[in-house]
Amino acid sequence: MRHVKGMSQEELADRADIDRNYVGKLEREENAATVDMLEKLAVVLEIDPAEFLQRKGTPADATEPSADK
Known about the structure:
By secondary structure, the chain is an all-alpha fold. It contains three helices and no strands. Helix 1 (9-16) packs across helix 2. The longest helix is centred in the middle third of the chain and has 11 residues, at 35-45.
């Protein structure tokens, strides 16, 4: 999260009205964000909150394999 869209942790924290240290802990996976926090961060980052739940390397529009194959 450090430089998403050219935004520093400090700027992200400031825009989301949260503590900068908390943003760092999220990035280092020392804390787990609540759903409310994910929504708050998504608004600032201008992304869909569901993007936080995508596995690394998985496109956001990937579909599940069909069960009838």
